[in-house]
Amino acid sequence: MTATTVTIIGKGTMGQAIQGLVKAAGREAQVLDSGATDVPVNGDVVVLAVPYPALTQVLAERADQLAGRIVVDITNPVDFGTFDGLTVPADGSAAAELAAQLPDSRVVKAFNTNFAATLASGTVGPVPTTVLIAGDDEEAKNTLAELVRAAGLKAVDAGSLKRARELEALGFLQITLAAREQVSWSGGFAVVA
Q1: What is the CB neighbour count within 10 angstroms for residue 43?
Q2: Can you say how many angstroms the Cα of residue 16 is from the centroid of all Cα atoms in its chain?
Q3: Is the pTM of this model over 0.85?
């Protein structure tokens, strides 16, 4: 399946960077404010480019609109009060919670190990940006990977949705390193294959 329209819920830096990828891939981007519900979702793929705590509101307002669509969770459930852990159980993930609440959607985890700057520039230092994708639906993962590659980035299948917990741990580590100024917000982890 080729995604023709991608809906991005969230207009922050990640939402803007992903919108740039969608346009670079030659696809149509629909960008919606996370709090505005007057415009319905129309994308084949829906990217939830909101902070983890905002997922509850998005689901309350739009869960019915997400049925039958590929839903991309980019969140990192970081405890931003302490920067000392994740807010989901150690054997779970934000993506698994989301999938349980959206049984009629095809949930994948992606973009949470990338900073907006590396998505926009297409590089992490001298290395091409790689988007790690986890999910239980092969077609959904392949659709997102095709979009990422069409935008000029690399995509790697990280496995089943169970791997979202490792991706979230990696995202957490990268965020805490950047917050402590150990790595740049325009840098981070790179994948060399």
Answers
A1: 23
A2: 12
A3: yes
Residue 117 is part of a domain; what is its CATH number?
Answer: 3.40.50.720
User: Does residue 25 sit within a domain?
Assistant: yes
Query: Which amino acid would we find at residue 171?
Result: G
E strand intervals along 70-152: 70-73, 106-109, 123-124, 127-128, 130-135
Q: Cα(4)–Cα(45) distance, rounded to whole angstroms?
A: 8
Structure tokens at 158: 């990280």
Domain membership of residue 123 (yes or no) is: yes
Left (φ > 0), alpha (ψ -120 to 50) or beta: where does 73 sit? beta
Cβ partners under 8 Å of residue 50, min gap 6: 9, 10, 12, 34, 58, 75
Predicted pLDDT of residue 35: 80
Answer yes or no: are the C-beta atoms of 116 and 16 closer than 8 Å: yes
Its domain, for residue 122, covers 5-179
At 1 the pLDDT is 74
Is 186 inside a domain boundary? no
Token pair, residue 111, equals 């973009």
